[in-house]
Amino acid sequence: MNRFLFFGIILSAFLISCSEKHYVDNDNIKLIFSEDTIHFDTVFTTIGTITRELRVINPYSGWVKVDEIRLAGESSSYYRLNIDGAPAQGVRDVEIAPGDSIFIFIDVIIDPVNSDNPIAITDSIVFSLYNSQQDVDLVAWGQDINLINGEKVQTTTWVSDKPYVIYNSMMVDTNQTLTIKEGAQLLFHRGSTMYVAGNVLVEGSVESPVIFTSDRLEGLYNDIPGQWGGVYFINGSTGNIIENLIIQNAETGLHLGNPGSVDIAPDLEIGNSVIQHMTVSGLSSLGGTITASNCVITHCGYYCVFIAKGGTYDFTHCTINNLWDYGVRVSPAVLISDFFDYDEVRYTGELVRTGFYNSVIYGSMESEISVVSLTGNPLNCLFDRNILKLEITEGWDGYNFENCIINSDPLYISGINYDFRPDTLSPMVDAGLVNYGTLYPNDIRGYSRVIDEAPDIGAYERQTGENSSEK
Description:
Blueprint: H1 3-19, E1 32-33, E2 37-44, E3 52-57, E4 64-71, E5 79-83, E6 86-87, E7 90-96, E8 101-108, E9 119-129, E10 132-143, E11 146-149, E12 152-153, E13 156-158, E14 164-167, E15 170-172, E16 177-181, E17 185-188, E18 193-196, E19 199-203, E20 210-214, E21 230-233, E22 240-243, E23 245-248, E24 252-256, E25 267-271, E26 274-278, E27 281-286, E28 289-293, E29 296-300, E30 303-308, E31 311-316, E32 319-322, E33 334-337, E34 339-342, E35 345-348, E36 351-357, E37 360-363, E38 369-372, E39 381-384, E40 387-388, E41 405-406, E42 412-414, E43 419-422, H2 434-439
Parallel strand pairs: 2-10, 11-14, 12-15, 13-16, 14-17, 15-18, 16-19, 17-20, 18-21, 19-22, 20-23, 21-24, 22-25, 23-26, 24-27, 25-28, 26-29, 27-30, 28-31, 29-32, 30-33, 31-36, 32-37, 33-38, 36-39, 37-40, 40-41
Antiparallel strand pairs: 1-3, 3-8, 4-7, 4-9, 5-6, 5-8, 9-10, 34-35, 42-43
C-alpha cells in the first residue's frame, strides 16, 4: 500500500476520533442558571415588557444534551421565549458544549384582565435531560390600564381605578378640560409628553396624591431623571390648577409658554406638590403666571425654577433645594430674567413681579439665585423671610434681603434623601412671617402652621418628635 495513502487513512481516523463528542452520562446532571427566578415588575396589559435574559450553563467537561426546553404553560402562557436566537415556546435536543452556555430571552404580554389590582402571572421554563428535570420560575404582576396613545383629549375626568399609560405623547385640546381625581396615576412611556392647550385640574389629596411618572416601575428607576418629556402648557392655556401632585423622573417637570406666540401666556396655580428628579428643570416659564404654595422642587440637572421673558410669580412656603448626582452643576437653583434667547432670536417681556415668601432656596452651589436683567437695572424681585444660599458680594444693588437668613444651613432631617422637614435645630423653625402663614395655614402634609409662635419657613411645619427620615 502506498505509504502516503496509509498515513492519510491513519490521519483521517485520528481526526474523526478527535471530533467525536463525549457526552456526560449521569442521571444527576444539573445545569447552572444565572438566576433561579426571573422577575418582572408590573406589566401593563396589551403592552410587552422589557426583555430579560437567562444564561444556561454546562459546568461539565463533556457535552450535555438537553432533551427539551419548554414553557410549562405551553400555548396558554403569557410568556415568550427566544432560545439561543430562535423564537419558540419550546425546543428539543439542545446541545451545550463543555463549559459553554446558551442564552434564553424572555418577555411577557398580558391580555386585559378587567381588574383594577395587579395579579400574579406565573409560569416556568422546564429543562428535561436524561432522567432529571429542572425549572426556572417566571413571575410578573399584570395590571389593566387605560392606554392613551397619541390622543387629543377632550373634556373628561380621569379617576384612580386604573393607571393611565401615555404612549406617543398626548394633548389636552383647545378649550377642553382634563380633570384628574385623587389617587390617579399617569405613567409616561419614554419620550412622551403631555401638551396642554386647554387646561388641567389636578385634584389630589394629602392622603392620595396624583402621580405623574415614568412607566418604568422597577425600583431601580425610582429617582432616575429623563425617562419622559414632562408637562408643557402652551400659550392660550389658562385656568390650570394643581393640588397634591407628585411629578418626577422627566426631562422638564412643568413648563409654561412657548416663545414667539402671540396668544396669552399660560397660568398655573399649584399647591402641596412635589417636583423632583428632572434632567433640565422642575418648574419653568416664559412670560407666564404662577402661584405656588407648599411645594418642594428638587434634584434637577439645571434649574429647579427657571423664569424668563417676564411674567408674574409668587412662591410662598416653598422648599427649593438642588443637589445633583449625575455630573457637575453649572446653573443656580433659581434663575430669573426678563428675556429669553432661542434660535438666535431674543424674546422679551415685563417681569411684573417675582416674590419668594417664607421659602427656602438652597443647594450645593455657592449661590443658588441668579437674576439677569436685559437693561442691567434691578428687576421687581421680592425676598421676604426666606433662607437663601447666596453670594452677595456684588451684583445685588437694588435688591432687599434684610428679612432673610443668608447662607445658613437649613438643617433638614435628611436632604440627601429628599427629606426636607426641619430638624430639631433648624433655623427654619418659627422663622416665617405670620401673615404668609395664615394665607396657607396648613403645610404640605396638612399639619397646621398657625397653632404655635410662628410658621416654619419652607413647605414643612416641624412636628414634635420628628428626628428621623421616617415620614
